[in-house]
Design brief:
The chain is mostly helical. 69% of the residues lie in helices and 0% in strands. The radius of gyration is 19 Å and the shape is elongated.
Length: 212
């Protein structure tokens, strides 16, 4: 039996696909009805206004991002308790972190391409709407993870360096999807692509690790 929550999620997923395929201007109740293959008027019944539909999209993107980040590999609990103190160990951890970031970014521009495009479009759409913008950033698990990761590298200013890392990863995604693709030129979804991204992220992380 399909619940109201299931139906709203179906419609939100369809709306994300519409934005990812055709941009924000294409987001209408009728377009979502068509994309979701539901009777006309279904979307407007569940989301009365375009703003409510956009809110549904933002909540769905936030849920997907949180669920994906929860599956990202990291140090085991035992390893996490032992913060590296020697530069060599921190550099080794920086390489492992760079590889994880590369896998995440590569996934964002391949498997999760439409979602990433939709999120970028939504960021611009709600830039002047603090209430809706907050949905994308409330409970920012990625930022919390980034602060923890750069702290383990010995960062003297974890919040600032975490923000820098996130901005860099966002820039890599933008460059891959709508930019010139000048920083990483290998075909997305390949080992070569992930290696290029790893090298780029590692260059940033090495600058965080203090000299002994």
């Amino acid at each position: 039996m399909t619940t109201v929550t299931d139906r709203r999620q179906l419609l939100a997923d369809a709306a994300i696909a519409v934005i990812g395929d055709s941009g924000m201007r294409a987001l209408t109740h009728r377009a979502v009805d068509t994309a979701a293959d539901v009777p006309p008027g279904t979307t407007s019944y569940h989301f009365r206004t375009r703003r409510e539909l956009l809110r549904g999209v933002l909540n769905r993107i936030a849920d997907i991002s949180t669920e994906r980040l929860s599956r990202m590999p990291g140090p085991t609990d035992q390893a996490a308790a032992r913060v590296p103190t020697e530069r060599a160990a921190r550099l080794s951890e920086a390489l492992a972190l760079a590889a994880r970031c590369a896998a995440f970014v590569d996934g964002q521009v391949t498997t999760f391409r439409k979602i990433t495009l939709a999120r970028m479009a939504c960021e611009i759409e709600v830039a002047s709407d603090p209430e809706l913008r907050e949905i994308l950033h409330a409970g920012d698990r990625f930022r919390t993870m980034a602060v923890g990761a750069v702290t383990r590298l010995g960062s003297p200013n974890p919040p600032a360096h975490a923000n820098g890392l996130i901005a860099f990863l966002e820039g890599l995604q933008f460059d891959r999807l709508v930019g010139t693709g000048s920083l990483c030129t290998a075909t997305a979804g390949t080992d070569a692509s992930r290696a290029e991204i790893t090298d780029a992220v590692l260059a940033y992380l090495v600058g965080i690790v203090p000299e002994e």
